[in-house]
Amino acid sequence: MYLTTPIYYANDVPHIGHAYTTIAADAVARYHRLGGRRVFLLTGTDEHGINIERIAARRGLSPRQHVDEIAGAFQALWSRLDIQYDRFIRTTEPDHIRTALDLWRRLQGSGDLYRGTYEGDSCTRCEAYYAPEELVEGRCPIHDLPCEHLREENWFFRLSRYEPALQQLVAETDFVQPVPRRSEVLGC
Ligand SMILES: [Zn+2]
Predict the structure, then answer these.
(1) How far, in Å, from the CA of 75 to the mean position of ligand 1?
(2) Ramachandran region of residue 97, left (φ > 0), alpha (ψ -120 to 50) or beta?
(3) In the Cβ-directed half-sphere of 150, how many Cα atoms lie within 13 Å?
(4) What are phi and psi of 5, to 5 degrees?
(5) For a 10 Å CB count at each end of the chain, is N or C smaller?
(6) Considering the entire predicted model, what is its pTM?
(7) Cross-strand partners of 38
């Protein structure tokens, strides 16, 4: 079985939330290994984004120096907690870049990518957009920081093309578990 933790965002050193999800994944992996199953446990760091670039600049480091340090801190913690992962992937590694580019080219080839614009209020710390009703007096509900109004031209994935097939997969198989989550995914 294949198991993954979130690929943690390399903006800062790990905290107890990172430890929680990784210990939980490690426990699940150990349980299945004890049952004689082949298990592959993945964890790692996501090292791209404007936020990382800004934090590195504030620290007087290059993005590369910053993410090397943070990835090292994650690895040191997993070693200290005896997390038995099979691979620690960093999104700056050549084989991640190669695979991401291959996927991108395949999506372009199949006509699944299109250009569009997205506009909204964004918190750079969250790297996420918020709907107006989610903001607290115009500020990020998590960081209590002012959001930036951004309008960006971007690439979009033509998910609508796959809607009927995905609905069928979720509704008629055990692809999503537990069962109550299925209607959540189907939005009904
Ligand atoms: Zn935020």
Answers:
(1) 26
(2) alpha
(3) 18
(4) -85, 170
(5) C
(6) 0.80
(7) none
Half-sphere exposure of 68 (CA within 13 A, CB side): 5
pLDDT in tens, 62-116: 999 999 999 999 999 999 999 999 999 999 999 999 999 999 999 999 999 999 9
In this predicted model, what pLDDT tens digit does every residue of 107-151 receive, in sequence order?
A: 999 999 999 998 999 998 887 889 989 999 889 999 899 998 989
Between the CA of 150 and the centroid of ligand 1 the distance, in Å, is 14
Centre of ligand 1 to C-alpha 166, Å, is 31
Q: 141: which 2 tokens?
A: 């509900």
Dist. CA 171 → ligand 1 center (Å):
34
**Measured distance CA(62)–CA(92) in Å, rounded:** 14
User: CA-CA distances (angstroms) from residue 63 to 106, 111, 185?
Assistant: 29, 33, 36
Contact 122, 148 (CB under 8 A): yes
Give the type of residue at 163: E
Query: Cα of 70 to ligand 1 centre, how many Å?
Result: 20
Q: Say how many Å lie between the CA of residue 32 and the centre of ligand 1.
A: 36
